[in-house]
Amino acid sequence: MRGISILAATAFIALAACDQTPSAVGTYMDGDNTGQMMVQITSVSGHELKGMMTAAFNSENGKVGGVSFPLTGTIDSNLVTFNVEARGELKLFTGTLTPDGLTLTSLANGSATKWNLKRGDAAEFANRVQGVRVKAAELKEAAQVEAASAADAKRRTMLDERLVGDQGRIDSFAKETLEKA
Hints:
Elements: H1 2-18, E1 26-32, E2 35-45, E3 48-58, E4 64-76, E5 79-86, E6 89-98, E7 101-108, E8 111-120, H2 122-180
């Protein structure tokens, strides 16, 4: 009987080692210095998963915008599917859970976007968002410099036009003065 228990335990350990599907619960992120996305899967019960999706991005005015939406979906082995309702628009995400992350494709308005999210944590996401803030500040400063340069160029053009006009009046006055003399 003891031999059967040892054999059963060995078989159980071998089967457990063969199952390489990682736990879905965790934090995943992707992005660059213009925007970041974080998916937090907070619970998995059976095949149902729940969590939050958060994004930070540079807006047109040089500020950082952010949104956060709850997500619900399913997981089957390493295949993940979930929906996020963002600003009245339902976005479908499908993907594959890997040992180091989550590959996703989002479908919305007839277009697909691919994401390659790596495992991380909320502190790392906060650091990444700080990089987005730095880039936003750089973009805002560059826009201000460009606007100031454009304003300077316009002022120079106006001054040049005034100088040309003034030079014309000076030349006319000089000519009249020479003719009278």
